[in-house]
Specification:
Blueprint lengths: L12 H20 L3 H4 L2 E2 L3 E2 H20 L39 H15 L8 E4 L2 E4 H23 L7 H18 L5 E5 L3 E5 L13 E4 L1 H9 L4 H6 L3 E4 L14
Parallel strand pairs: 5-7
Antiparallel strand pairs: 1-2, 3-4, 5-6, 7-8
Length: 264
């Protein structure tokens, strides 16, 4: 009998919405202070810093545009639950697509102001169960906002790696991002033989085999939230993180190379 999958984690809609706005504000403050030379710097994925900064607005705008549409009939379709979002075949987390604003066109400060105002107006804190039509299918608003924290943390990390500006990470946004990607791993490879620790935000068990119940687990993987995000999204390879001591893995089953990245 295959291992049973655990019940999805619950997220507080109000806190998630506040986290989304807080992380957006951190990026906005940093982008506002950037020079033209900094905006022209190369960023991960063959983009420029300006490209990434423009895409940050799209992360919020997708929620606003979805709220402008009538709620779809019925509930979320199979394969579009929150834990399935990272595996959606038609998306590349943190990638580019045709819906992005023209990176060389908009005034970024004006774009951010308009985006934040639309989001604040159209995305209320008390509409957790409101259904949306998203690129990944039908989702609850509360769940979709959790996915926004993942995108925002990714883009913040991309900007930091490109500019060394040290843009802050909102704690709640980083926590939601970490927990969703950790839970997605546990959902992808259910079991209890390996314990994956991403302190201080997440601990999950995964991979079929002898289940650990007491004492020190025989198979343990541990890393920090940003390294975990990079591993889960393919920005860092397992062997690279292991070799640079960004991740520790003990036990004969503690090898996640075949399960990462999640977004493939």
């Amino acid at each position: 009998m295959p291992p049973a999958k655990k019940r999805p984690r619950a997220y507080d809609m109000s806190r998630t919405r506040s986290a989304v706005l807080a992380q957006f504000a951190h990026v906005r403050d940093a982008v506002r202070a950037m020079t033209p030379e900094q905006l022209a710097l190369p960023a991960p994925g063959g983009r420029t810093v300006r490209d990434v900064a423009a895409r940050v607005a799209t992360v919020l705008d997708r929620a606003s545009r979805a709220m402008e549409l009538p709620p779809p009939a019925g509930g979320p379709r199979p394969g579009t639950a929150l834990l399935e979002w990272p595996f959606s075949a038609d998306r590349d987390i943190g990638g580019t697509d045709e819906e992005d604003p023209a990176a060389d066109g908009p005034d970024l400060d004006a774009l951010y102001e308009e985006t934040a105002a639309r989001f604040t107006e159209l995305v209320p804190a008390g509409a957790q169960d409101r259904l949306l039509t998203t690129r990944a299918g039908t989702m609850r608003l509360g769940d979709f906002l959790v996915t926004r924290t993942v995108e925002l943390v990714i883009h913040t990390d991309d900007l930091n790696r490109a500019t060394d500006l040290g843009i802050p990470y909102d704690r709640q946004a980083l926590a939601a991002c970490t927990r969703l990607l950790a839970d997605a791993l546990a959902d992808k490879a259910p079991g209890g033989s390996v314990e994956v620790r991403v302190p201080p935000f997440a601990v999950v068990q995964c991979i079929g085999g002898p289940k650990h119940t007491r004492g020190t687990p025989p198979n343990v993987v541990e890393t920090d939230p940003l390294t975990w995000m990079r591993l889960a999204t393919g920005r860092t390879k397992w062997a690279e993180a292991l070799g640079s001591a960004q991740v520790s893995a003990s036990g004969e089953r503690a090898d996640l190379a075949s399960l990462l990245p999640l977004t493939v």
